[in-house]
Amino acid sequence: MVDGAVGAGTGGEPESSDSLRTFGAVVQGLREHAGLSREEFGELVRFSKHTVASVELGRRMPDAEFVQRAEEVFGRTGALRRAAGCLERQPGLAAWFRRWAALEQAAITLYTYECRMIPGLLQTEAYARALFANQLPPLDDGQIEERWAARAERQKLLKGRPNTAFSFILEEHLFLRCLGGGEVTRELVDHLQEIAELRNVEVQIMPVAQGAHAGLAGPMQLLETPENRWLAYNEGQRGGQFISDPKEISVLHRRYARMRSQALSLEDSLSLLQRMRGNL
After folding, report:
1. Ranges for the HTH cro/C1-type domain (predicted)?
2. What three-state secondary structure class fits 223?
3. What does R_g of the chain's alpha carbons equal in angstroms?
4. Are 19 and 82 contacting, i.e. CB atoms less than 8 angstroms apart?
């Protein structure tokens, strides 16, 4: 699986639910009782007034940092912390991926290396559905639609956050597998070439000819928060590992930096994609 979804990466802002709206109403009530505007409260919790509004209106899952800082502003009663544990999440997200997906919404930098399949943020609908069709245990039609809707919502990050820097390193063999067939792969390559034209997105291919490289231990994701804190996430068959230890993140940072030098340049990566498309 990829990016924490059952059957591959999905995510994004959660659908509004009764629990999210209730939590937001409590935050708003406490804020107004304290005599704070959204902008003033946002400065205290170090989130924008727009983020505060999204939380209060039940449109956004509150980050752990948001809850912790709000608790400090409102007297550390523990009420918000306990309420946050009961929030319902968007369908389509695996439990272990939810925290990472929430952090992605505010990230200013996101690095992704993938050696198993195309990351969820870059997948086309046809490619994603080919993954879903081969999921075990099998998915029913409703689950497939749920997962694609969640993934499509999460993909809005690429164009919706133009000030966030995205870097992707993808193994060449991901395209050579031709998951879903030649037409699906051609569409995927076209999509990647379009995404790579965005100023905030870099796509590099790790060629098969490279042989050994710094990422052979497996896929990884690195993320920088608005507070310039770096976090990491690694995923396996049935679970994910959230990493906050600076020493571990330093190791992953060094590996990713080495991979960027070992992979093809941005221009050569696009040229390789075009050649592979012509061979399909």
Report:
1. 27-80
2. strand
3. 20
4. no
